[in-house]
Every structure is written in C-alpha cells, then in structure tokens.
Write a structure and sequence with these properties.
By secondary structure, the protein is mainly α. The longest helix has 14 residues. It is built from three helices and no strands. Helix 2 runs antiparallel to helix 3. It is 42% helix and 0% strand.
Amino acid sequence: MDPAKPPPPPLLKMSSLASASCEPPGAEPQEEKKPLKPCCACPETKKARDACIIEKGEEHCGPLIEAHKECMRALGFKV
C-alpha cells in the first residue's frame, strides 16, 4: 500500500430492514411479515390469462385460466 494514501473507510452493516428491502421480490415469501395478496400472486400466469381473455374471450382461454388457478392453489389460495 502507498503510505501517503489513507486507509479505506470501514464497511458499514445495513440494518435488517434496509437489507430486506433490497432483496428481489419473491426471494423468500414465507419469511415476509405481510402475507402475499391474491392480486400479486402468480404474475406470469395472470398476465397470460388476462391477455387471452381480452383478445379471445374467456371461453377460449380455459387452459390458461386453469394454469393460473393451479398456481394460486400452489401458493395456498383457495380458488
């Protein structure tokens, strides 16, 4: 090290609240304090289902609707 160069500042630890807010969504849903809301569950199947219903009508989207229901049930929702 260069003797004229000051040492780097010490590393600071984040509080648990700050570090938890930096985690990607869905990283550990079981340990979150707030329960998962139905509107936020299964965004991939929900988006595909909604797009199909808008474009083709509900009667033509049975498999996508069922896939979304299965995803919701897997997360513990009663559908």
